[in-house]
Design brief:
The protein is α/β, with parallel strands linked by helices. The protein has a single domain, classed as 3-Layer(aba) Sandwich (Rossmann fold). Helix content is 44%, strand content 17%. The chain has 10 helices and 9 strands. It has a 7-stranded parallel sheet with strand order 3-2-4-1-5-8-9, sandwiched between helices. A hairpin with a 6-residue loop joins strand 6 and strand 7. Helix 1 crosses helix 2, helix 1 crosses helix 10 and helix 4 packs across helix 6. The longest helix has 17 residues. The protein starts with a strand and ends in a 12-residue tail after the last helix. It comes from Sphingomonas ginkgonis. Pfam families: MipZ. This is ATPase.
């Protein structure tokens, strides 16, 4: 059976598609058979990224690790199930990028998840999606609606399949300097993780390079094709490797060794 990694967050601008495509490429580079399914048939960010990657390979006559990919045009849970069954015959890992909204298709994908990844900008604005904090002491007062949605989805999956879901919250756009806000958000997230049941790992930092690579479809695992292997890019590549390793996907142990 394929391992399903679902990237889901109802808020936009959290780096969801960026982390999804970098994860898919990193796993493919590690020798996994990877398929990527884009559920956002309007923006198609993940699809466009991988299309740009395919175009770069044709233009430069190079061979890069490349997942299979497709976009779900028919937005129904039934069509999602058919796409998953088809891709599962060709892939060890299926990466699913959901749109930044709550709908029946996104919920159906979440129920399929073996690893559920919620990228989140490192701020109380984004944290409010899964937990509310006290305005003075910044302690968690209660889980929010999205945490309850995920809890219900995990319960549904456990009843229907007997399998648990590894829920991972990515702290994206982490600042590289310590601040009171960084510490407060971190403490609140750790407290909520214990109450709700998710893991917290560092995601991708606030780096221009992640946006600049999009037109060519490249990732930081393709440094020899970027032409600039400066220290900042090397540090960013290590950041990417650590993020993928932190997800704990079966068979990804070779990712850290990819040049």
């Amino acid at each position: 059976m394929a391992h399903f990694i679902v990237f889901a967050n109802e808020k936009g601008g959290t780096g969801k598609s960026t982390t999804a495509v970098h994860t898919a490429v990193a796993l493919a580079a590690a020798g996994q058979r990877v398929a990527a399914l884009d559920l956002d048939h309007r923006q198609r960010t993940l699809t466009r990224y991988l299309e740009n990657r395919a175009a770069t390979m044709r233009r430069t006559e190079t061979d890069l690790p490349q997942p299979l990919f497709e976009v779900l045009d028919e937005q129904t849970p039934e069509a999602l199930g058919e796409a998953i069954e088809r891709l599962a015959q060709q892939a060890d890992v299926i990466v699913i990028d959901t749109p930044g909204r709550d709908d029946a298709v996104a919920r159906a994908a979440i129920v399929r998840a073996d690893t559920l990844v919620t990228p989140m900008n490192d701020s109380f604005v984004d944290l409010d999606l899964i937990g509310q904090v006290h305005p003075e002491n910044f302690k968690i007062t209660r889980p929010s609606f999205y945490a309850e949605l995920i809890w219900n989805s995990r319960t549904q999956r456990a009843k229907s399949t007997g399998k648990s879901v590894d829920w991972v919250v990515l702290r994206n756009r982490l600042q590289h300097i310590q601040s009171h806000n960084l510490q407060r958000v971190g403490a609140a997230m750790d407290e909520l993780a214990r109450r709700v049941g998710f893991r917290v790992i560092p995601g991708l930092g606030e780096r221009v390079i992640y946006r600049e690579l999009f037109p060519k479809g490249l990732t930081l695992l393709d440094l020899k094709h970027i032409g600039d292997a400066g220290l900042a890019h090397i540090a960013a590549r290590q950041e990417l490797r650590e993020m993928v390793a932190g997800l704990g996907i079966p068979g990804e142990e070779k990712t850290a060794k990819v040049a």
